[in-house]
């Protein structure tokens, strides 16, 4: 947190998130239910695809607001099956166009995630440069970088 503040990042929100992942043919599909310090309760259905590796990578994604998350969760579970559920607390900071996530994930531990959201016309190289700067400022060693999503890590837990 201190590094984010020192960089001039804005303390944007604190969220309780419940991500229910469903089986799907390509990428990942999750229903995210949010309880936000700033905006209250909300939910969204998110499909995304990105490589599972440790380097900075580009994601393709679609997001739809969900007014009735319980009904959507039940419907997707019936049609596709639930893959895994991830519960976390996310402290969100924003530095320029980069979201800095300080995540405390149930059963997995604490994680730091950077997400550069590029504006129309902004080059990927700009985002990769921002992420490299943050990695340096937060002193993140190569061996500490995780390439998998929280859903994949949850599925690797014993039992």
Question: How do you describe this structure in short?
Answer:
This protein has 159 residues and is α+β, with helices and mostly antiparallel strands. The protein is 23% helix and 43% strand. The protein has a single domain, classed as Hypothetical Protein Pfu-838710-001 (Beta Barrel).
What CATH architecture would you give?
Beta Barrel
Fraction of residues in β-strands? 35-45%
Q: Structurally, how many domains make up the residues?
A: 1
Query: How many alpha or pi helices?
Result: 4
Q: Under the CATH scheme, which class?
A: Mainly Beta
Instruction: Report the oligomer.
Output: single chain
- The low-confidence runs, each spanning 5 or more residues with pLDDT under 50, are none
How would you spell out the order of helices and strands?
A: HEEEEHEEEHH
Widest sheet: strand ordering? 4-3-2-1-5-6-7
Biggest pleated-sheet summary: 7 strands, antiparallel
CATH topology, by name, is: Hypothetical Protein Pfu-838710-001
State the helical fraction.
Answer: 10-25%
Shape call: globular
């Amino acid at each position: 947190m201190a590094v984010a503040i020192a960089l001039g990042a804005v303390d944007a929100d604190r969220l309780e998130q419940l991500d229910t992942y469903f089986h799907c043919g390509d990428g990942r599909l999750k229903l995210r239910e949010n309880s936000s310090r700033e905006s209250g309760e909300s939910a969204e259905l998110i499909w995304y695809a990105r490589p599972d590796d440790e380097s900075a990578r580009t994601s393709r994604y679609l997001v739809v607001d969900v007014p009735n998350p319980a009904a959507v969760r039940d419907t997707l579970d019936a049609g596709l099956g639930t893959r895994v559920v991830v519960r976390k607390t996310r402290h969100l900071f924003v530095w320029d166009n980069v979201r800095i996530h300080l995540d405390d994930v149930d059963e997995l531990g604490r994680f730091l995630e950077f997400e550069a959201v590029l504006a129309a016309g902004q080059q990927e190289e700009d985002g990769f440069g921002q992420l490299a700067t943050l990695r340096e400022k937060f002193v993140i060693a190569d061996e500490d970088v995780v390439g998998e999503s929280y859903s994949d890590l949850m599925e690797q837990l014993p039992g």
